[in-house]
## 1
Amino acid sequence: MSYYKIDSLEQYFKHYNKSIREPRKFWGKIAEENFTWYQHWEKVVDFNMAEADVKWFVDAKVNIVKNAIDRHLARRGTKTAIIFEPNNPDEPALHITYNELHQRVCKMANVLREQGIRKGDRVCIYLPMIPELAVSVLACARIGAIHSVVFAGFSATALATRINDSECKMVITSDGGYRGNKTIDLKSIVDEALQNCPSVKHVLVAKRTNEAINMVAGRDTWLQPLLDEASDNNVAEIMDAEDPLFILYTSGSTGKPKGMVHTTAGYMVYTAYTFKNVFNY
């Protein structure tokens, strides 16, 4: 019996009760049957509730992007992985296949490495809702860099606070973005924020609005020319199950923003499982 797909309310309660009675067996079976691992775990979960210390799939080795993209190429390579619906309804939608997404992510991963980003480095992503956002997130995870996505509507102060807290080495942004019929000058917000962010060494800039922007010599680089020159061959980094995957900050509406760190394997298994069943995918 597979626990992965729920087809009825009766089956939901059956699976739910199983997860409560035997959580290690339940999640271990889901992880074993539905994901690709470099190395199996010693324990499904290890925890100390008094110290709020929880570890999932202890000592397992995995890469979340290998699971999200690579393993699907043989059977789903020509199928659509991402649909990009632009802000302007007159601009055509873009369908990106798994093969195309794999190529884009590998190229971006190689660009990040060429720019000096290594496993464990933090990368701030301050982009509008364009394909480069998803590609950047996946490329960071592929090489073991920790991404921090900041909503491209936050102020320079809010952006700087999040960059400094996680000591990001790079910012990935665009010349601008669209919100309704307005154009948002994202690059100037980044420039203002980086006046107080000494950890940032490089800024990669995607073209979106084609507005005239300021480019700081030695720090800012247009992204597309780097991608055009990059190889699409890239080997995914082998990650420990408990290696950090990304940092997501709270809004800061009730105080200083708090960075919530999500690790790799537990996040991968739980989000894939809930997405499949909550959205009946």
## 2
Amino acid sequence: MAGNTHFPVRYQFVEADGVKVFYREAGDPVNPTLLLLHGFPSSSHQFRELIPLLADKFHLIAPDLPGFGFTEVPADRDYLYTFDGLAKTLIDFVDVLDLQRFAIYVFDYGAPTGLRLAVHYPQRISGFISQNGNAYLEGLGDAWAPVRAYWDEPSAANRQVVNDAILNLEGTKWQYLHGVSDPASVAPEGYQLDALLMQRPGNREIQLDLFLDYANNLTRYPDFQAFFRAVQPPALIIWGKHDPFFIPPGAEAYKRDNPNAVVELLDTGHFALETHAGYIAQRIREVIGVR
């Protein structure tokens, strides 16, 4: 595979939906585009190893969603932090960049956001990669218990439980390391950077609002599944099988609506790119290919 010597990554901002969106870009724009959508509590930083491994044959774009990474939302924008809101910004982002045809890689929060984009622009989707990005009820694991309690009763007490369990360095580190056979293989800057960015003024409340709104994603699952049935894009469903949030039945479920989907379970946890970036890049080349 090519390294990053000949395909440098560019770090840029663009205004979309009244938001100053930060994004990473690499590769020649004449090549097929791959849109990389991160999850909680990360940012486009999670693709730092994957991007150089694909930049010889793909045009890669990885934005930071509002509330994450280095994307800036002006205070006077009065931004509504819901998954519908994130998707609206993402749709405007691809329009501003004039992305007419692209594959999407979704992980965690990137799945309900990216799949709203796919439902909005089904004709633009050339391929689909889900790495622990859920679209089926059976994919929700037991780790969602405190968040489900918050959905059922959005009280201040339940909000505080979610805050204390997840929105701190230890909770973030646990998400990175749980289910990983060799924790020493996971670079600490990933979870350290995520935890630091979560401490920006007002960001904790943003994240708690998104946790509450996540319940609305479940009501959109039928729309996402209808997209898979109608379009049946080339699909790689590649999953860390020890993920406590998004469990293997959610990966296998993709084959119901897209029989051509390739499903693989990896011996790792939620953040599979931290341990398997090289292998995932290889499988993207083989399954999604250059189209």
